[in-house]
TrEMBL record:
<protein>
    <recommendedName>
        <fullName>Corrinoid adenosyltransferase</fullName>
        <ecNumber>2.5.1.17</ecNumber>
    </recommendedName>
</protein>
<dbReference type="GO" id="GO:0005737">
    <property type="term" value="C:cytoplasm"/>
</dbReference>
<keyword id="KW-0169">Cobalamin biosynthesis</keyword>
<keyword id="KW-0808">Transferase</keyword>
<comment type="similarity">
    <text>Belongs to the Cob(I)alamin adenosyltransferase family.</text>
</comment>
<keyword id="KW-0067">ATP-binding</keyword>
<dbReference type="InterPro" id="IPR029499">
    <property type="entry name" value="PduO-typ"/>
</dbReference>
<dbReference type="GO" id="GO:0009236">
    <property type="term" value="P:cobalamin biosynthetic process"/>
</dbReference>
<dbReference type="InterPro" id="IPR036451">
    <property type="entry name" value="CblAdoTrfase-like_sf"/>
</dbReference>
<keyword id="KW-0547">Nucleotide-binding</keyword>
<dbReference type="GO" id="GO:0008817">
    <property type="term" value="F:corrinoid adenosyltransferase activity"/>
</dbReference>
<feature type="domain" description="Cobalamin adenosyltransferase-like">
    <location>
        <begin position="7"/>
        <end position="173"/>
    </location>
</feature>
<dbReference type="GO" id="GO:0005524">
    <property type="term" value="F:ATP binding"/>
</dbReference>
<keyword id="KW-0963">Cytoplasm</keyword>
<dbReference type="InterPro" id="IPR016030">
    <property type="entry name" value="CblAdoTrfase-like"/>
</dbReference>
<dbReference type="Pfam" id="PF01923">
    <property type="entry name" value="Cob_adeno_trans"/>
</dbReference>
<comment type="pathway">
    <text>Cofactor biosynthesis; adenosylcobalamin biosynthesis; adenosylcobalamin from cob(II)yrinate a,c-diamide: step 2/7.</text>
</comment>
Length: 190
């Protein structure tokens, strides 16, 4: 377990931060951007939970925990050295992706097929979940950009891809199972 006795350390005052393996990098490093955006997403999920109830809140709680796992995975490069590590790093696993897929399938079964694109909105929870969806897409873009140059656990990328889909379907559920979705009307304001 992590113990934080002192919140500020002054070690980042010159624009660097430590990765999970102890290496220092610029705070604008691609890896820091990737896990920083997953942290930002986690904060938006926390805001969405303010409007969520019961099962949706429980599922969002699991996602928040997964996002901390994902950030821990991203902040620890050099996957090839995992077996040699004194303390094996936390890595995302396939079962986390499979859980999202099962939840997507279950939620989607209650929804009528879409006949138009959806505008973010409807209920407060749906609007918050659409923000989460777009931030998840940005986190995915940053993770795939990082993967072009460095080792990234494929389960991280897959999880983020499924997560944005999860948020989309959950946003429809939050809009009275899609009945209150705000549909795009192409060219309506011409």
């Amino acid at each position: 377990m992590v113990t934080l006795n002192k919140i500020y350390t002054r070690t980042g005052d010159k624009g660097t931060t430590a990765l999970g393996n102890g290496n220092r990098v610029a705070k604008h490093d691609a890896r820091v951007n990737a896990y920083g955006t997953s942290d930002e997403l986690n904060s938006f999920v926390g805001v969405a939970r303010l409007a969520a109830k019961d099962e949706m809140d429980q599922r969002l709680s699991l996602i928040q925990n997964d996002l901390f796992d994902l950030g821990a995975d991203l902040c620890r490069p050099e996957m090839a050295k995992d077996a040699e590590a004194e303390y094996p790093p936390l890595r995302m696993v396939e079962s986390q992706v499979k859980r999202l897929e099962a939840e997507i399938d279950e939620m989607n079964s209650a929804l009528a097929p879409l006949r138009s694109f959806i505008l973010p909105g409807g209920s407060a929870l749906s609007a918050h979940l659409h923000v989460c969806r777009t931030v998840a897409r940005r986190a995915e873009r940053l993770a795939t950009e990082l993967a072009d140059h460095e080792d990234v656990n494929q389960h991280v990328v897959t999880y983020l891809n499924r997560l944005s889909d999860w948020f989309f379907v959950a946003a429809r559920i939050a809009n009275d199972d899609g009945k209150s979705d705000v549909l795009w009307v192409p060219g309506a304001n011409r």
